[in-house]
Amino acid sequence: MAEEKLQRLExxxxxxxxxxQDIRFVVxxxxxxxxxxxxxxxxxxxxxxxGLVRVQNEGNTLKIAxxxxxxxxxxxxxxxxxxxxxxxxxxxxxxxxxxxxxxxQRLAAKDPDIDLIRAEAALKRAxxxxxxxxxx
Amino acid sequence: MASLRDLKRRIKSISSTQKITKAMKxxxxxxxxxxxxxxxxxxxxxxxxxxxxxxxxxxSVGMKHPLLAVREPQKVAYIIVTADRGLCGGFNANVIxxxxxxxxxxxxxxxxxxGRKGRDFYRRRGYNIAQQYIGTAKADISLTNEVARFxxxxxxxxxYDEVYLIYSRFVNVLVQRPVVQKILPVEPPEGEADEKKxxxxxxxxxxxxxxxxxxxxxxxALFQSLLETNAGFYSAQMTAMDNATKNASDMIDRLTLxxxxxxxxxxxxxxxxxxxxxxALE
Lengths: 136, 282
Hints:
The structure holds two protein chains of two kinds.
Chain A: E1 7-12, E2 17-23, E3 25-30, E4 33-37, E5 44-48, E6 51-57, E7 60-74, E8 77-87, H1 93-109, H2 116-132
Parallel strand pairs in A: 1-8
Antiparallel strand pairs in A: 1-2, 3-4, 3-6, 5-7, 6-7, 7-8
Helix pairs in contact in A: 1-2
Chain B: H1 4-59, E1 76-81, H2 91-103, E2 110-114, H3 116-124, E3 129-133, H4 141-156, E4 162-170, E5 176-184, E6 201-203, H5 206-281
Parallel strand pairs in B: 1-2, 1-4, 2-3
Antiparallel strand pairs in B: 4-5
Helix pairs in contact in B: 1-5, 4-5
Subcellular location (chain B): Cell membrane; Membrane
Subunit structure (chain B): F-type ATPases have 2 components, CF(1) - the catalytic core - and CF(0) - the membrane proton channel. CF(1) has five subunits: alpha(3), beta(3), gamma(1), delta(1), epsilon(1). CF(0) has three main subunits: a, b and c.
Function (chain B): Produces ATP from ADP in the presence of a proton gradient across the membrane. The gamma chain is believed to be important in regulating ATPase activity and the flow of protons through the CF(0) complex.
């Protein structure tokens, strides 16, 4: 078999570098739908929605929950710049569950003082984290 | 010469001050290490955002975006980042001094202060403070995002024509350098000269990407400045407290020496009095 081509994936947030490794295939949660990226992809910049970055490398799949931001693909380098990103092993399940319940309560309360858009975004982020750990 | 009792009292008071400065130094050193780690961890993101903005900016030249619009600077705003607390040598004073210099160029500018020390100074001098934030020690990203939203809204509404950020950059433990950075209008950094212009596919389109990357760039500049301030503050405090501890040691040494001299003089005097008294009796 020919030497497998790899691409470098970097996931960075304002606080830290979450992931940086050479990988085979990655699926990004693009604003217009999921994007699968293989090495030597054409240059691309895409906005991202709250979702999962799925990394496939040597038969393993790693999920990274990201929210807000964008991705740049260039010269077999994928850079994901997100406001928040957590690898599945970094996610605090208890915290995500609590956040989910809090957001659900706020949405159910129908209180005019509550910002529905924010509550919905919070719920989405919490569900996204739970999905990354296989809890929802 | 001061009396023995006075000297003893002064030594005692200085050594209790020294205990405090020593403890503060230890605390600052521990916090500095953490603050330094977070600055270094945050730098890759800042660099990536700048790189991508530079490339995307040059790939979509001629694009009109409200945050890129250059206007005649009529109304200017300065964001000034200091620490909340003092006892850190000239750290806050250097930033404040630079701020005073800069504001001279636009005397009717609005100020947005982050950190208690800057707020106190500029409020006392009667500058226009539009917004003030304190609580820098946590390096809270929601605080800087709030500041970013405020200036972006004001800029988009054409109430501000230019926005500058003044803070202290953490160079290393001994050097913190105050800097002025123009954050609005955004000036996309130049791409590297040898780099070819990249023909990007934009998803969904270049405007949407700019809508998300430009605020992110500004938010990040502010967040970074807060992290730099924190790391610099604890380094400056550690250095200042180290000096204070050393000075206290020097003073204690000098006072101990004079105390010993005084004691010896007293003993000599006493002996000569006894000898003199005994001689008088003979």
